[in-house]
Amino acid sequence: xxxxxxxxxxxxxxxxxxxxxxxxxxxxxxxxxxxxxxxxxxxxxxxxxxxxxxxxxxxxxxxxxxxxxxxxxxxxxxxxxxxxxxxxxxxxxxxxxxxxxxxxxxxxxxxxxxxxxxxxxxxxxxxxxxxxxxxxxxxxxxxxxxxxxxxxxxxxxxxxxxxxxxxxxxxxxxxxxxxxxxxxxxxxxxxxxxxxxxxxxxxxxxxxxxxxxxxxxxxxxxxxxxxxxxxxxxxxxxxxxxxxxxxxxxxxxxxxxxxxxxxxxxxxxxxxxxxxxxxxxxxxxxxxxxxxxxxxxxxxxxxxxxxxxxxxxxxxxxxxxxxxxxxxxxxxxxxxxxxxxxxxxxxxxxxxxxxxxxxxxxxxxxxxxxxxxxxxxxxxxxxxxxxxxxxxxxxxxxxxxxxxxxxxxxxxxxxxxxxxxxxxxxxxxxxxxxxxxxxxxxxxxxxxxxxxxxxxxxxxxxxxxxxxxxxxxxxxxxxxxxxxxxxxxxxxxxxxxxxxxxxxxxxxxxxxxxxxxxxxxxxxxxxxxxxxxxxxxxxxxxxxxxxxxxxxxxxxxxxxxxxxxxxxxxxxxxxxxxx
Length: 579
Hints:
Elements: H1 2-5, H2 12-44, H3 49-98, H4 101-104, H5 109-151, H6 153-200, H7 202-207, H8 211-236, H9 239-264, H10 269-311, E1 331-338, E2 349-356, E3 361-366, H11 372-379, E4 387-392, E5 395-396, H12 402-408, E6 409-412, E7 421-422, H13 423-427, H14 436-445, H15 449-452, E8 462-463, H16 472-484, E9 490-494, H17 502-515, E10 520-524, E11 536-541, E12 544-549, H18 551-557, H19 559-569
Parallel strand pairs: 3-10, 3-11, 6-9, 9-10
Antiparallel strand pairs: 1-2, 1-4, 4-5, 7-8, 11-12
């Protein structure tokens, strides 16, 4: 709760103003029945028109103040709750941006989306109710009880019994319901995950005619959520009947005993009239409090889930005095071991001892799951090594400012991502200040210019979110151009030419050598033709270095490399056009 409330920030003033105006509204409403009783007892029964007029004007003024206070309280409550929700979303989003990959791995994408939408909305609604109703109801309850005791102490004991009874009922309901709501929001994650997966892979779904399967999967997720909500709401539904039972029991008791007191002369008609008003105020306050308990019950699970995101600390940090310059593209792995989950005994990389000179072109090849991507992720410090040291430019990557390091180590990942915007907008992710001419030059190097020039709007063509309106090969070439614009000390191509033909792949590699000649280049590929011209080739097998030499030497000395080469060439090579 403390973590979440810390996001109130600049909206504390609006919160306190809401409470202040709500308090003033309650004071006016509590005094109105008292004035009504005076009008009846001192005005009507004594036929005193001046008293009626004076008290009537006073009531109008008090009603106007109450109306104004209520309106202002509503205005500031809306501002405070909306601003609070905005701050929560921004803080969560900022936290996620600062996460390392290992932090992000702890949450599902759907779970993060649910936390930033459904959970924040629940907390927003609960907060708005709390700063208004949670202030108004206790004040109204206490003030009305005080006025009731001032009118008749014996009759007021009825309310105390009702309060004790309701407190027990509400405690039981909350205890039974909180655990269900926690499970409900977990099911929201499953539902959002189903939607996200289906929409992202809609082409595959249609290609394999799996619409019915996806519909059934979504229906199961929706029905699970439905059943849990029915279970939770069924328990909460007990609240209203119990409240109404207590209200009518109190009215009946006060009517019965009040009539006897009037007959005995210990109460006046005005007293019983105002007492009924206070009874309704007390009961309405109790009903509002029960609504707050419901909202708090629902939002408590959301608060816990939001706090998990806000309290998650990035596992990667900048050192106290970070190095702010990468000298060159030299890369050294000194007996590095790496595991995604520490303590499991399952190492992704084992005893990697590797030394790459600045400006070298290194090919990396190996079977699926052998650790190729994990290896290069350590260079830009997307993860930290479990043991050993990874150095860039002669310095441990943990000594660098992470932004400085990542600006000098450009990575074209296996999963290419483009963002909604023009082609130029996407290219300038590599260099915000890049001119259109620089973007064109980079696209020529990545062989993207040849298809961009054929587009009606050229470099101003709009790219849909995720790059859905360009092909896989076009997307890869744009991502390579984006990385080239950074002119980094180290360029990593993680199987980033898999969707282009071998001729285009070769042209891209030759152009990159010319565009950034002094840059160290690491090329991960499945095709031998993509790496055979590299200065040296690294062969990985099950997280270990199996070979590291030139293409010719590996063919003679390395069985794994030779098997890969022969399997790709014995059938006549790649089916693409010759280089």
